[in-house]
């Protein structure tokens, strides 16, 4: 699957986002090493901090389906990921990320996306 095809999947699923407050629908599609595509969307809540980003719903679904960090090759997102989601992408050990930002299509590794990220290996 090409990056453009994966991003098209993210675009299609974004229409299912629940974003009545911001009207900013975001979709995420992640390709696993075994060729499965897992999708997610942002889900807002009237108590704003309780909303979840598309990346977080996608990886949560993947974990429920039995996938683990390191099982993901590429994540395609319809918008630039927030700082928290950049940490999620790092922790899930995604090889690379494709997203739109300011009308551009951006391709980055997670290390480029989030240099000096928090390393869970440093936890006691």
Going by helix content, strand content and strand pairing, the class is alpha+beta
Averaging pLDDT over every residue, what do you get? 95
User: Low-confidence stretches at least 5 residues in length (pLDDT < 50)?
Assistant: none
Radius of gyration: 14 Å
Q: Which range does the strand content fall in?
A: 15-25%
Query: What's the β-strand tally?
Result: 5
Please tally the helical runs, counting DSSP H or I stretches of 4 or more residues.
Answer: 4
Strand order across the largest sheet: 2-1-3-4-5
From the spread of the alpha carbons, the general shape counts as globular
Summarize the topology:
Layout: H1 3-14, E1 27-32, E2 37-41, H2 54-64, E3 72-77, H3 83-91, E4 96-101, E5 104-109, H4 110-113
Parallel strand pairs: 3-4
Antiparallel strand pairs: 1-2, 1-3, 4-5
Task: Provide keyphrases for this structure.
single chain; 124 residues; alpha+beta; five-stranded mixed sheet; 4 helices; 5 strands
Structure description:
With 124 residues, the chain is of the alpha+beta class. 29% of the residues lie in helices and 23% in strands. It has four helices and five strands. The chain is globular, with a radius of gyration of 14 Å. The chain starts with a helix and ends in an 11-residue tail after the last helix.
Task: Compose a concise summary of this entry.
The protein is α+β, with helices and mostly antiparallel strands and 124 residues long.
């Amino acid at each position: 699957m090409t990056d453009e095809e994966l991003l098209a999947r993210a675009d299609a699923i974004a229409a299912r986002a629940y974003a009545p407050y911001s009207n900013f629908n975001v979709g995420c599609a992640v390709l696993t090493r075994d060729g499965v595509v897992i999708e997610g969307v942002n889900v807002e809540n009237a108590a704003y901090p309780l909303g979840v980003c598309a990346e977080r719903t996608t990886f949560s679904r993947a974990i429920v389906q039995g996938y683990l960090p390191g099982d993901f090759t590429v994540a395609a997102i319809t918008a630039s990921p927030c700082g928290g989601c950049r940490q999620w992408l790092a922790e899930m050990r995604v090889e690379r990320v494709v997203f739109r930002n300011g009308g551009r299509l951006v391709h980055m590794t997670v290390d480029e996306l989030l240099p000096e990220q928090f390393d869970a290996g440093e936890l006691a």
